[in-house]
Each structure stands twice: as structure tokens, then as C-alpha cells.
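Input chain follows. Return C-alpha cells only.
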Amino acid sequence: DRAKEEETRRILRKVYPKHFLGSVPMILAAEFCNHPDERGRTNLAVLNSYVHSSVSRVLYKAEDQVRQAGFKKPLLIAHSNGGCSRVAKTRAIDLIGSSPVAGYIASQHWAERYGLKNVVTIDVGGTSFDVGMIVDGQTSWKDKEFYDVPIATPVVGVYSFALGGGSICKADPASKQVAVGPQSAGAVPGPACYGLGGQFATVTDADVVLGRVDPEYFLGGRRKLDAEASAGAINENVAGPLGIGTKEAALRIVRQAADQAVDELARLISNTGRKPPDFAMFSLGGAGGARACELADLLGITQVYTFPWSSISGAYGTSLMDVVHVYMASCQLPLISGGEPSLDFAAFKALIAGERHKGLRDMAGEGFTPEDVLWRLDVEVFDRDRNTTYLVEVPGANLGDPDDVRRLVTSCGQMVGRELEINVVYVKACRVMTQPEQTATDEQSASPAQALKGAREAAGEGWSVATNVYDLNTLAPGAEVHGQAILERVDTTIVIPPIWRFRVDAYGNGVASKV
């Protein structure tokens, strides 16, 4: 408990000289995280300790560099809780997974603009395949864990899988199956086509062999890919052991990667209690466009959105984040007993008031007044009947208003008839930042002809034909392209399979739909 941890610190300070402790940070789990789950609290502190020193050096150096460059505003760092804060208020643990979470925040912004209640986001890069879920227009929070390590704090529900473009592909001659991942070639040496010494076949190598990625136009032509190296790696690692041709092996790689991704997507969607056709898909990451339509087709999703910022979704999403400070208070306050509300409102109000005071102090340090602050309230509710804990958002909470109890009970929904207890209260102090304006243009009946670059042999599941290739930047709002087609830009490639069409909308975003 906290008392034992503080006693441990007192002993360490007594035994070790000051000059030694001055160079080695001491992090108490109880100070770091005020949660009754001792295991999760300790894990959180241990994970933070592993990366604390290196992260703090990088962040403070970055802050110095932007100051030297003449940037006078505070440097804000994206956090995995969906907000951002100054360097001095950022813990190392806050950065884990923060870039995919920022992409998720960007997706929320556009889902709201489009009026989409249910969205599944896929963010595909060189190493990982990250999935987020927006359900009923609300943020999804995942079980409290980082990469299967239990922690004592909720994080935005973005799940990572080893299915990126650099995922290594091998064949099992006994089963005649192809395995994709979990090992990755990373950026160095990277896929075989990078020409940096990579010997293993990857998903990106399969895309090159299948003509889906143009080796002459990678990064807009600033870097050439080695198509022969891709074919060689696929022959050695997949085609040869299976006794099949190079192109067939590449197709099997793409198909296996899609099957693995669809399994994970279907499982996550099923956990929401909804079905895939209830969702639209947002394609993020530089490699997302090469996968999105085919994955949506396999799932039964009929609409896919792509964005000019898809390949830098983390950076774009960071620009949309609010400044957020989260304060956690543990307690044991009965909420419903015998079917009736039984919350000690005075104790509840006092608990919130203490955390609110911390929030006002920290927001003042950010340069904001009390009038600038928007408050949000979440609680962890323990269901005694089912021995399960739920994270419940309290919409419109006024932090101490008696109506907060009614809102809380209402938010518990179907749990109302059971024995419920509040175990943890999360008070969130937020400063809503100015959002960039999104201007819609008039959609015209624009012809895609001016964006046509030519055609090349390309293949996907069930198709292998000469395929039109378009310059994505040249497609004007209103332009529509029918699959199969390939759309290219300096930072991404979008594959439109047969019976799909792609239209540039009034915002300059791409909307692919199944015909």
C-alpha cells in the first residue's frame, strides 16, 4: 500500500547517498497511480520506469529545439488517453500507443462531421495493423492493458496486431500454408525490395510482385524499389517450399494477411454487439489504402473512407486534440443497493472537489483560467452480482451537482437492478482547442481522365488484368473511378477492387463504396 511504498522510499534515502539518488529517479506506484488494483498500479509504474529516462531526455531536448527555432507557444505532447499536455505534465507511459490514438481522434472528428455513428478504423504502417472502434458515436475504451500487460488505467481502445507492410512471410511445407508475422523486417533492413539487405519476403514485397505498388514511384519516385529482390525473396521463402509460382505465392501472402486481419476485425466488431455492415471503415496509415476495400469486402462493410492525411494520421490527429489532465481517486461508495440509489452524495462531492482542485491548479500552469476548463466525469462501477467492473461515462456532469447521481444511474443502463459500487472516479479537466476549419467545395461532374497516368498489370483476390492507374492528387471533387483501379500519391497507394467505385467528395476525401 501507499504507506509501505513511502517507508521504502524513506529507507532508500537513508541508505543511499544523496548524490546517487539524485541521478536515479524513484517512482512510487501509489503516487504514480491512485488505483486500488495493486498489480495494475505496479505494472504501470514499472513500464514507465523502463522508458522514463530516455523519453524525458528526448522530450526536453525537443522542447529546447523548438524554443531555439523561435516557437513561442507551449510544446504539447499527445497522450494515449486521447488528449495532450505540456512536456512537464507528460509521463513516459503516456506516450505508449499515442500516435495510433491520435489517428483515432482524427477519425472521431470526421465521423462526427459525416454523421457516422459506427466506424472501424484501420491504421496500417510498416510494422503494425492498428484497429479502433467508434460505437454509437462514443469513444471506445479497451481493457486496462498495454500489449497484454495489465495496467490500472483505461486507455483509448486502439488494438495493435503484427500485420504491417513489413510483416515477414514464410511457408510451412507440411501444412502448405503461408504464415504472415508476427516478426517484422522493420524499416532496416526492411522488405527485400528496399535493397538494404532484407532476405525475407514481406507483405510489401507481395504488393510489388503483384503490381499493386509501383517500384518506380515509391515515395513519389524519390526511392526506387527492387522488384527482382521481392520476387527472389518470395521464391525462396514461400513459392519454392510450396512448389508454386511467384505470382501465386504473392497472392497467397496477400490473402493470408487479409484473412488474419479480418479475423481480428470480426472479433472486435462482435464484441460491440453489432455486425460488420453496421460500420463504415476509415483507412489510415500509408499502407491502409492497399488493404481497406478488400478487407471491407470480406467483412461485408460497404463504405470505406480515405483522407489526404491518412498516412500522417497521428500528426493530423494531434492537431485536433484537446489539452486534457486526468485525475484518479479510489473509493468504495455504494451506488445502488437493494435496487435503489444509495450513494453518499456528500462523500461523492468531496471526492470530486479534491480532484477538481488539482485540475484547476494544473490548468493554471498551462495558462488557462477556470472559465477555459471543461469538466468530464467517468467512474469505474463494480457490479457485485457479476463480479465485473465497468467504465461508465457520465455525460453532462457538473462535478458535484446532485443531478450527477441521476446521470450516473441512467448511464449504468441495464445494470440498474443489480448491486453496484463506485470504486474509482476519474475527473478530467479539458481545454477544448480551436479546430481547423474544413471547407467543402461544390462537387462537379469531374472527369477522372486528366488524372489517368496509364495502366499496368496488377492482381488481387480474383482479378489479374491491366489496371488503370490514377494520380490521386489530380482527382477533383466529384470525380469517380470504377474498380479495378489503383490510385497513387507520393505517400500512399489505394487499391480499388472490382465492383467497387471511388469518389472524391466535397472535402477532398475519398469515399469508396461497393456497387
